[in-house]
Amino acid sequence: MRRSPIGTKNGDVRLLNFGPVSVCDTERVAASADPKSVKVNLTTGTGVDIEWKDEHQSHYSFPYLRDACPCALCDDERGKSGRQPGEPPKSAPGALPMFKPAAKAETAEPVGKYAIKFHWNDGHELGIYSWHFLRDWCPCEECKAARGVIRAG
User: Fold this and answer.
1) Most buried of 106, 118, 141, 149, CB within 10 angstroms?
2) Is the dihedral of CA 138, 122, 39, 41 positive or negative?
3) What does pTM read for this prediction?
């Protein structure tokens, strides 16, 4: 079954009714990383809302998603600075803050059945956000606490 984004009259994108997501023909992603519905709020700039098949709901602000970009360049930069996906970069000690427009997705598009890709207002467009990655880095308090337990253990 082929799925594509459904445009709404306000310009937002809604991706609905996702079936089982497979990374490849032989491997299935766990049901917890399987979205039931995805809404990308481009017009309001509020981010992405995902309802997962296990009934968990996640909200990702666009700045959070931009700071979580999974591309190799962003992942390398985060690794060097010790940041986790979604954490904003830290200013150098004594540096004056520079004005930088808030991160906002200009467009969003599905990548196969397993991910979503954004074109950001800063020109960046390399990151492919898999459903598994998004579920692993859900910013809700419950998921943050679970990640803290896993890292500590």
Assistant:
1) 118
2) positive
3) 0.77
> And the tokens for 6?
């459904």
Measured distance CA(110)–CA(15) in Å, rounded: 8
Give the C-alpha separation, 128 to 36, whole Å: 19
Q: Which two tokens stand for residue 58?
A: 């996640």
Beta-carbon count within 10 A of 150 CB: 8
Q: Which residues are registered as beta bridge partners of 116?
A: 110, 129
Q: Give the model confidence (pLDDT) of 83-96 as tens digits.
A: 999 999 887 777 77
Q: What is the DSSP letter of 134?
A: H
Give the CB-side neighbour count of residue 130, counting CA atoms within 13 A. 14
Where residue 112 falls (left for φ over 0; alpha for ψ -120 to 50; beta otherwise) is left
Which residue's entry shows tokens 């896993």? 150
Angle made by CA atoms 26, 30, 34, in degrees to the nearest 5: 105
Which residues, in sequence order, are bridge partners of residue 111? 115
Q: Report angle CA 92, 97, 103 to the nearest 5 degrees.
A: 100
Beta bridge partners of 130: 115
Task: Tell me the two tokens of residue 74.
Answer: 């962003």
